[in-house]
TrEMBL record:
Lineage: Bacteria, Bacillati, Actinomycetota, Actinomycetes, Micrococcales
Domain Integral membrane bound transporter, residue spans: 46-163
Protein name: Uncharacterized membrane protein YgaE (UPF0421/DUF939 family)
GO cellular component, one term: membrane
Keyword Membrane in annotation: yes
The species this protein was found in: Microbacterium telephonicum
Membrane topology label: Multi-pass membrane protein
Keyword match Transmembrane helix: yes
Protein location: Membrane
Main location: membrane
Length: 366
């Protein structure tokens, strides 16, 4: 390297491209919260201007937008907590402003009191931050009428809670989508593991284990959307009919949570057993049958008429899950792979609405 050579040099990078497909999906998923925010903020602002006579009701807008947001988890309880935090912050700041005026030390005192009390009252980080933001606005931005901005904050809070019930975010469609994504992840993991068994491929088996472990995030996402959907359905008159379906989804989710855990157990045994490179077509066929039964359960998320077919398909697999009968003379290691599929079959049967006792009773005694 010469002395004149630069130590560092710029590297040209291509311009970042806009992913139209992902952008369209984000927009499609966000139209309901966007509608909520627009309606709530506009209505709250109009009420404060026309009814209360406030010329610039800033907090009606900030409270509605901040409390509703575009997050997936829009449970009414969380929205109510955020609203309460913001109103509390405004109240503290208004009291301090009325008693001591405005200035740098009043701002510090308001933020310290608001954050301290908010952290004492709630474990939610958003509660304290939302309260502090509104408290800072009250101290920093001048206002003429005492406690007028507290009234604006209350108007925004009421508007946010009303639109949560009267313009609800589509609970059932979001829950169904998250459920389908979990089943798709389950199907991909089970299919890869079955291929690893069929080909005696250690690398494919290891990849199947990775996919099985990745289903945890899908379970958590489905649980979050289901909890939010059930809370919204409890307060919204427009989602009353969805309550029974959401409860059914809850039963399937509980069973699939256990199923994904047992799939990871199966995956670890598959990784161990195929390390010798030998094909295991019988175990692969059994796992493939369970995979197809799970696909029928996935279809029943949106069409309950598929539930009996899913149950019969899984019963046909469960009734022959005898490791010794399926693999006579095989090693205990090979038989243990099939034995690990027994709890998985029970979980999938439970996902079809079958009781755990009846599902276990469908298995042959070993």
């Amino acid at each position: 390297m010469t002395e004149d050579a630069p130590i560092t040099s710029s590297v040209p990078t291509p311009p970042r491209r806009v992913d139209v497909r992902r952008g369209a999906r984000r927009l499609r998923e966000s139209w309901a919260p966007i509608t909520q925010i627009v309606v709530a903020a506009t209505a709250a602002y109009a009420f404060s201007v026309t009814v209360l006579g406030h010329p610039a009701p800033l907090l009606t807008t900030t409270v509605t937008i901040s409390s509703l947001g575009l997050v997936r988890d829009a449970r009414p309880r969380l929205i109510a907590e955020t609203v309460a935090g913001m109103v509390f912050g405004v109240l503290v700041a208004e009291v301090l402003r009325f008693a001591f005026g405005t200035g740098w030390w009043q701002l510090g005192l308001a933020l310290a009191l608001t954050l301290g009390v908010a952290r004492f009252l709630s474990a939610q980080n958003g509660f304290a931050i939302a309260a502090a933001i509104q408290s800072g606005i009250v101290i920093v931005i001048p206002g003429n009428e005492p406690f007028a901005r507290l009234a604006d904050a209350l108007v925004g809070a009421v508007a946010a809670l009303l639109v949560t019930a009267l313009i609800p975010r589509s609970a059932r469609s979001v829950v169904s989508r998250d459920g389908r994504e979990l089943f798709a992840a389950f199907d991909a993991a089970a299919g890869t593991l079955a291929q690893g068994l069929r080909r005696g491929d250690p690398l494919r088996a290891a990849r199947g284990l990775e996919k099985a472990r990745a289903t945890t995030a899908r379970v958590d996402a489905w649980r979050a959307s289901l909890d939010a959907g059930q809370e919204i359905a409890r307060i919204s008159p427009f989602l009353f009919r969805d309550r029974s379906e959401l409860a059914r989804h809850g039963t399937i989710l509980a069973a699939m949570d256990l199923a994904t855990r047992n799939l990871r157990v199966v995956a670890r045994r598959v990784v161990y057993v195929v390390d010798d490179g030998q094909a295991r077509p019988v175990a692969a066929a059994v796992l493939g049958d369970l995979q197809r039964g799970a696909a029928l359960v996935a279809g029943s998320l949106d069409d309950i008429s598929l539930q009996p077919a899913a149950r019969e398909a899984l019963l046909a697999v469960a009734r022959r899950l005898d490791p010794v009968a399926l693999l006579p003379g095989a090693s205990h290691t090979d038989q243990n792979v099939v034995a690990a599929m027994r709890p998985l079959a029970v979980d999938l049967l439970t996902a079809t609405g079958m009781s755990p006792v009846d599902a276990r009773g469908a298995l042959p005694r070993v």
